[in-house]
Every structure is written in C-alpha cells, then in structure tokens.
Amino acid sequence: MAIFEGASRLGATDRALPTGADVDAIAPARTQEIAARLDRLPATRAVWKLIVLLSLGFFFELYDLLYTGYVAPGLVKSGILTPTTSGLFGTSGVATFIAALFAGLFLGTSACGFLADRFGRRAIFTWSLLWYVAANTVMAFQDTASGLNLWRFISGMGIGVELVTIGTYLSELTPKHLRGRAFAICQTIGFSAVPVVAFLSYLFVPRAPFGLDGWRWVVLLGGVSALFVWYFRRNLPESPRWLASKGRVDEASDVLAQLERRIERQYGKPLPQPGPSDPAPRKAGFADMWKPPYRQRTIMLIIFHIFQTVGFYGFANWVPTLLIKQGITVTHSLLYTTVIGLAAPLGPLIGYLFADRFERKQVIVWMAALNIVAGLVFSQVSAAAAIIALGVLLTLAGNIISFTFHTYQQELYPTAIRARAVGFVYSWSRLSAVFSSFVIAFTLRGFGVTGVFVFIAGAMLLVMLVIGLMGPRTLGRSLESISH
To answer: With contact defined as beta carbons under 8 Å apart, do 308 and 463 qualify?
Structure first.
C-alpha cells in the first residue's frame, strides 16, 4: 500500500507503509510529504488563479479599511463628527471613528485569530467576509457619532479576522519559490482599492445623490461589491497544510492531488519530483510563541507593529484631513488624494520585481528610511506638484513595507498556530492605531502638520532598528524549515 495512491504519476515517490511501532511515524512523514509536494509546484495558471481569488477578498478588505480617511471630510460636513477633539480622548471627532475601527480590528485579530486554526482557512475566509458586509451596511445608515462608531467597531472585528486568514491561507497554498511574488500580486490587487475608493469619494463625498450623503454611497458600494467574492470563493480548496496539521492527511492528499492534476495539464509535462522533506514542526500551542525560536520573533513583531502602524495609517487615514489643515479645500484635497491613491497598487507591483530576490527584512528597513525622508519634506511643501510627488513616494514606500511584512510574519510560525500567532502580533498594530489616531489628532491641533510627520518619523526609525537587529532571514526557505 502506498502513502499516496496514484501519486507516482504526479511525481511523488511511492513508499511502503511501515508496521508495528513505526506506524506512529506515518502521519509526520506524510505531513512532510504534503509540504514538499506543495513547494515543488510550478507557477501555472491554476496556482495564479488561487492567488487572484484570495486577492479579490483582500481588495474589499482594503477598500473597507482605507475608506476611513476618504469619507472623514463627508462625516464632518454632515455634522456627525468633528475634525479634531477638545481633549486627547474626545468621542465626537474623526479620531474616534478611526479608533473604533482599529479597536474592532484589535479584537478580531487578537481574540478571534484562532478561528482559522480551528475551523479552517476556507470557512473563516467566507464567514468573516459576510460579517463585515452586514455590519457596514447597517453603519451606512447611522446618524449619530455613537451609532456610527459602534457599527464601525463591529465591522472592524470581521475585517480583522479576514485579514489574518487571507495571509495565512495564501502563504500555505503558495510554493516557497513564489511566496514573495504571490503576496506582491495579492497586495497589488488589494491596493487597487485605494484609487477606487479615492475616486468614488471624490465623486460622492462633496455631494448627496438622491438625497443620501455621499459618504454613505462610498460605504454601501464597497459592501455590495464584496458579495461577489462570496460567490467566487467556492473555487478555493482548503489548505492542504492545515488539513495535514489536523491529522486529516488523506483529505489533504486528495485536495492536493486534484490541484496537481490541473497544474500538470497546464504544465504540459510531468511535475518535478518533490524535494527533500523538511521536518514538520511538532504540535504547537499559544504558549509556544513565548519559547525559542518563536519568542524573539514574537517580541520583534509586536514592537514592529506598534510603530509601523503610526507610519502607514498616520498618512493613509489622515492625508485628506492634513491637506485641509494646510488650507486646501475639501474638493482639492480629495482630488490630490485620488491622484496619490493611483500609486497604491504600484508599490507591491514594483515589489514583485524583487520580492523573491532580497531578504524581507532588508526591504522593510530601506522603505522605512524612505518614509522618514519623504514625510518630513511633505510637511514643508504647499505646491500641488510637490504634494502629489511626495504623497506618491510615501504611498509606494508604505505599500512595499505592507506586502513585505505580510509575507514575512506568515513565514515565522508553524502551521498549527500560524493564524492565531500572526493574529496576536498583528493585533498590536490595531491597538497602536487606536491610540495613535488620538495622538495624531492632538498633535495636529497643537503642532500642525509638521508635528505629525516628526511623530511618524520617530516611529519609523524604531521600525528600522527592531527589524534590522532582530529579524531572521527567510528568503527561499520552506515554511517548515523556517518554523523548525
């Protein structure tokens, strides 16, 4: 009896099953074989189709996540929110709306990340999508700051679970030689949401089509469109790595065999033989995050996420408000940010060219340095061309950092705890965003735009130090060898 029936036709090696005491070694050996078979798959149309399907989910996640800054002027115009607050933690300002989102994201990533490890990547990918679509629809019809913030919080929970699940799902389905480029394409498609939401905000936010505030149209259009992802998700298989980690090795092998058959037909020749099988990490739980080798990685990623959020969302969520603070009108502010938003998908698209050539940690460090320089200069200019050029640089740097760390953090933990571990460390970015939004609002009121970018520069300097000094190398290695 072979470990994989019929697998020899696909390039797998037939091995006789041992008997007696050796039976206990079968499951780990077969789990290693599953990983080796996945990592040797060539980049055919079938592989890229899976990447694109997951990326469509990411598109609507980012649409929902990033419209915050673009609809903020409309929320102020409608009288629901105010641009700044009288105290550090005022409850009626734009900062509260941003904080409500990130509080929900924090809870979704920290407390609910285990759901994908327990129930599977495919199921949670689907249900968390429907969760935030429903919550957003209710939020679009709120008329008070308290109602708006409550439903933004509930929506944020669904987005938090979905963001962690997509990254975990993608890292486990993608062969190791393609992992960096897969995340680059995923984020290219995802960040295409930025110019879309910016343009829709430019069209709708200053107006009230059919008597409905423009910001409500921006929210509703994203939710309705996201339902198409729910329809297409039926073509996604469950992660074979997750199935194997749950002891469902036969099911994992069947799912993988179906994928191998499609890939082999497209490849036009027999698939390559699986490479050497890296030892599969032992069963792991939450406590293992605080034991070597994961302890240093966990501490590093917590510090990283606390401060990278300041740089990324400090610009992305606040740029229209920052421009208005500099005396630019709402319409012109949204026009400038629409043009800047066009650069959002270009960051990871450019990153595709070097995603699997340079160490992830080095890319993060250099892009953080660019963020510091461009941000400080941005705070000093007023000409439209300079604002747009520097805004584009900030967007490119931030989005290259984003797709790189999304790849990087998924590589640092074993399959058994990948979703909950990444959810836990990632949740610190959400907690950071809750407080940093208030700090930015307070800084903007007291020290102006320059003060905001000095604050951001300090945060990005800490990002450079922690990743540069503590980050392990992962380029070209299998998930199993990194986790072992």
So the answer is: yes
Backbone angles phi, psi at 227, to 5 degrees: -65, -25
- What phi and psi values does residue 2 have, to the nearest 5 degrees? -90, 155
Tokens of 431: 């907690």
Helix (H, G, I), strand (E, B) or coil at 293: coil
104 located within any domain:
yes
Inter-CA distances, 353 with 159, 175, 346, 356, 400, Å? 29, 17, 11, 8, 11
- How many C-beta neighbours within 10 Å does residue 92 have? 16
> Is residue 442 classed exposed, middle or buried when 0-12, 13-18 and 19+ CB atoms within 10 A define those classes?
buried
pTM over 0.85: no
pLDDT by residue for the chain (484 residues), tens digit each? 333 333 333 333 333 334 444 434 456 777 888 999 999 999 999 999 999 999 988 898 888 887 887 888 889 888 888 775 554 455 567 878 888 888 888 888 888 888 999 999 999 988 888 898 899 999 999 999 999 999 999 999 998 899 889 999 999 999 999 999 999 999 999 889 878 888 898 899 989 999 999 999 999 998 888 877 777 777 789 999 999 988 899 999 999 999 999 999 999 999 988 877 666 666 677 788 899 889 999 999 999 999 998 888 777 767 766 776 666 665 567 677 778 878 888 889 998 988 899 999 999 999 999 999 998 898 888 787 888 888 899 989 998 999 899 999 999 998 888 999 999 999 898 888 778 877 887 888 888 888 888 999 999 999 999 999 999 999 888 888 887 6
What's the one-letter identity of residue 316?
Answer: A
For residues 475 and 482, give the distance between their C-alpha atoms in angstroms, rounded to a whole number. Answer: 10
Cβ(351)–Cβ(403) below 8 Å: yes
Domain boundaries, position 162:
45-239+280-483
Tokens of 175: 């062969």
CATH code of residue 126: 1.20.1250.20
Residue 168 contacts residue 121 (beta carbons within 8 Å) = yes
Look up residue 387 and give its two tokens: 């604002």
Q: For residue 476, is it left (φ>0), alpha (ψ between -120 and 50) or beta?
A: left
CA distances to 285, 316, 344 from 418, rounded to whole Å, are: 10, 28, 28
In a domain, 106, yes or no: yes
Is 396 contained in some domain? yes
Tokens in use for 128?
A: 């968390």
d(CA 4, CA 109): 36
Domains in the chain, number = 1
